[in-house]
Every structure is written in structure tokens, then in C-alpha cells.
Amino acid sequence: LGNYNITTYRYTEGMGQYREYDTIYYIGVVSKVENSDSLIYIRYRPGAQTDVCGSDSVFGAYIQPKLLDSGKMSYQKVRNCSNSSGFRGNFSNNTSFNINIKSGGLGQRNGDIIIGSR
């Protein structure tokens, strides 16, 4: 799939509060995961993963969602974290994508809004 210009907005929400952190601009990569029909790897910011679920890293620097034929993405790994976790993502003609991912508990959630284009 290749390189994408990616903009990431990190945020926290909870207890009636919403806070956005610094916007990150990054030239990221999107590739197919080996030995998989539909998993893709999206590296959208430098560094290590920041959000974990148990002992499994979920997001923060990269994700590995499933890309469906419709262009929608599914990321079961984050949905399994908690009832407050969520993921929405769409790919458009391999030229752009839009993702909103969040995890956390009832009191606070961390999330990333990720926008990529060629």
C-alpha cells in the first residue's frame, strides 16, 4: 500500500472533560501483514505503543486492523479491551483513511484520531 502523510490527534475524555494533546504529523507506512488475507499494518507515529490491554499492546504508534472489501476497517483487539473501548476506520480507494480508536475504563478513555492521505 505504501507511505502516507498522517496527522494524529491524541485525546483523553472522561468525567465530563475532554482534552486534546499536540498534533503529530508523520510520514507513516501502511502494509499488508504477512500470512494474512485482510490484516494491514498502519504505523502512524514514531515510538512505542502507549495503550495496552492486559499484556498486549493495542495502539499508540501502530495498529493492525482488518481491512474489509467495503473499505471499512475492523480492529477486534481494541474492542476486546473493555466496554468503553471502540474503533471506527475507513479506507478510501487506497488514497486516504480515517480512524478513531479509544480504550480505557469508565472513568477515563485515551484515544487517537488518525487521518492519512497520499
Summarize the structure.
The chain contains 1 helix and 11 strands, in the order E-E-E-E-E-E-E-E-H-E-E-E.
Structure characterization notes:
By secondary structure, this protein is mainly β. The chain has one helix at 76-79, and strands spanning 2-14, 17-32, 40-43, 51-53, 56-59, 62-63, 66-67, 72-74, 86-92, 96-104, 109-117. Strand 10 (96-104) and strand 11 form a beta hairpin.
Blueprint of the fold:
Blueprint lengths: L1 E13 L2 E16 L7 E4 L7 E3 L2 E4 L2 E2 L2 E2 L4 E3 L1 H4 L6 E7 L3 E9 L4 E9 L1
Antiparallel strand pairs: 1-2, 1-11, 2-3, 3-6, 4-5, 7-8, 8-9, 9-10, 10-11
β-sheet strand percentage: over 45%
Determine the number of helices (DSSP H or I, runs of at least 4 residues): 1
Radius of gyration: 14 Å
What is the share of helical residues? under 10%
